[in-house]
Design brief:
147 residues; 98% helix
Length: 147
């Protein structure tokens, strides 16, 4: 064997070792890719399940929200009708309040006039009694003088 043949055999063996090394490397990468693909598939399955659950929950929430809106609208209509019914009552109460205020003002005016009349009557009574007392005293003095 010549040196050239030995070099060719060494090169061939090196090439086979290189190919085997690449083969093991690619097989290792393939296993890693398969594991990663499985993990990604599990994650996608879980995401799909989560989206399905969320879709169902959102549907339920939308139905409940619609029911609440319908009930709220009915309640608002009822309150509006009752408020319209009560409005005349508040107007009547306001009118009554005005009437009571006017009655109070009139009562105060009458009371002040009665009070003034009472003061005048008391003054007249006091003056009348004083005049009667003075007249009695004068009469007593005249009777004493005549005796």
């Amino acid at each position: 064997m010549s040196v050239f043949e030995i070099a060719a055999i060494i090169a061939s063996i090196a090439f086979v070792v290189l190919v085997l090394g690449i083969l093991f490397f690619l097989r290792s990468i393939n296993q890693q890719v398969n594991k990663s693909t499985l993990k990604v598939n599990r994650i996608l399955d879980q995401a799909d399940q989560t989206v399905n659950i969320l879709t169902k929950d959102v549907d339920v929430l939308l139905q409940q929200s619609e029911t609440i809106l319908v009930n709220s609208n009915e309640l608002l209509k009822d309150v509006t009708k009752k408020a319209e019914t009560i409005d005349p009552l508040f107007e009547a109460v306001a009118d009554l309040s005005i009437s009571v205020s006017e009655l109070n003002a009139s009562s105060k005016e009458v009371l002040s006039k009665v009070s003034e009349a009472g003061k005048t009557a008391v003054t007249a009574t006091v003056v009348g009694k004083a005049a009667k007392t003075a007249s009695n005293l004068i009469n007593k003095n005249k009777n004493k003088n005549e005796e």
